[in-house]
Design a protein that fits this description.
Nuclear Transport Factor 2, Chain: A; five-stranded antiparallel β-sheet; 46% helix; elongated
């Protein structure tokens, strides 16, 4: 069946189809942008946090580092989540430390610490970077804690 349309009707139909296509494209872009905004980590200074106390995060960070220095892996595992218990074995921790230095030497002091609250995927985390001075090397420990102050991430450099 052939429908004869006037040129004005063709223009209106073309404009309508164009607006529908632009609307669909705009909706897709908005959905993608919202998804990226939700996935992308957002951070703010720990002092602005309503979930974490800066002093508690600093104390827990230094406590974890002390446990690692003392090789007290039994107590260390009580401070981590279940996933970390299986990943951060004594051998894995020793290997990670060896990549930084073969010999840290004795602990000298804790240096600067920076702390932030991170919000990602609807979860809130405390993130701390602690400088630690040893006799032979200065090490930066990056630790991530969940809302229960359990260790969920550890990086040593």
């Amino acid at each position: 069946m052939v429908i004869n349309m006037t040129s004005e009707e063709k223009k209106r139909r073309k404009r309508k189809n164009l607006l529908i296509a632009l609307g669909v494209i705009l909706a897709i872009v908005i959905i993608i942008a919202a998804s990226i905004a939700w996935i992308w980590p957002k951070s703010k200074d720990i002092s602005e946090s309503t979930v974490f106390q800066a002093q508690e995060v600093e104390q827990q960070t230094q406590y974890i580092v002390s446990l690692l220095d003392e090789a007290d892996y039994t107590t260390f595992n009580t401070c981590t989540t279940g996933d970390m218990n299986t990943t951060l074995t004594p051998a894995a921790i020793t290997q990670a430390k060896a990549k930084v230095s073969d010999n840290f030497g004795s602990f000298v002091s804790f240096g600067d610490i920076t702390m932030d609250e991170m919000n990602q995927h609807g979860n809130v985390y405390a993130f701390a970077q602690q400088e630690v001075k040893y006799e032979n090397v200065t090490v930066i420990y990056s630790l991530t804690f969940d809302e229960n102050m359990k260790l969920v991430g550890l990086y040593i450099r």
